[in-house]
């Protein structure tokens, strides 16, 4: 442990003994759900720092966008023009994610890619069976 780490620990311990952490909002309550659960564990700390600084990595933004398109697709009639447009958009976003190493990791780690493919395949089979 470095000198800086020991100094920081000493300050934290001193503040805790003085009761400075006793009246913090949410004290004694469970922590909120981790919004970075889909991010590989080795990237979470860095992503949290970036998020707290107001920066959202492009891969995370693409993941959010893909979820939104998926949600819209689930509420759309499978054979409609809107469903075809949303399906194309989902494929494009997934392609964009697959082109970056971090995006591939996000797709691979969460099994997200397989779920998207299954949903798109189901959407296609519904639209083909209606013809």
Compute the number of helices: 6
- In sequence order, what are the helices and strands, one letter per element? HHHHHH
The residue ranges in which pLDDT falls below 50 over 5 or more consecutive positions are none
Helix/strand/pairing class, anyone? mainly alpha
Number of beta strands? 0
End-to-end Cα distance, whole Å, is 68 Å
Q: Beta fraction of the residues? A: under 5%
What is the helix fraction of residues, given as a range? Answer: 55-70%
Shape descriptor reads elongated
Report Rg: 22 Å
* Major sheet size, sense and barrel closure: none
Mean pLDDT over all positions: 80
Question: What does this 3D model show about the protein?
Answer:
With 131 residues, the protein is an all-alpha fold. The relative contact order is 0.10. The protein has a domain at 41-129. The termini are far apart. Helix content is 69%, strand content 0%. α3 (58-74) runs antiparallel to α4, α4 (81-98) crosses α5 and α4 (81-98) runs antiparallel to α6 (112-129). The mean pLDDT is 80. The protein has six helices and no strands.
């Amino acid at each position: 442990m470095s000198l800086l780490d020991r100094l920081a620990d000493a300050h934290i311990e001193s503040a805790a003994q003085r009761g400075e952490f006793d009246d913090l909002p949410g004290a004694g309550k469970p922590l909120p759900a981790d919004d970075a659960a889909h991010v590989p564990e080795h990237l979470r700390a860095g992503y949290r720092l970036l998020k707290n600084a107001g920066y959202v990595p492009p891969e995370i933004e693409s993941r959010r966008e893909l979820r939104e398109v998926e949600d819209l697709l689930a509420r759309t009639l499978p054979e409609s023009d809107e469903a075809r447009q949303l399906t194309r958009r989902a494929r494009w976003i997934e392609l964009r994610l697959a082109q970056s190493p971090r995006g591939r990791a996000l797709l691979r780690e969460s099994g997200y890619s397989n779920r998207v493919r299954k949903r798109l395949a189901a959407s296609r089979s519904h639209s083909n069976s209606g013809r």
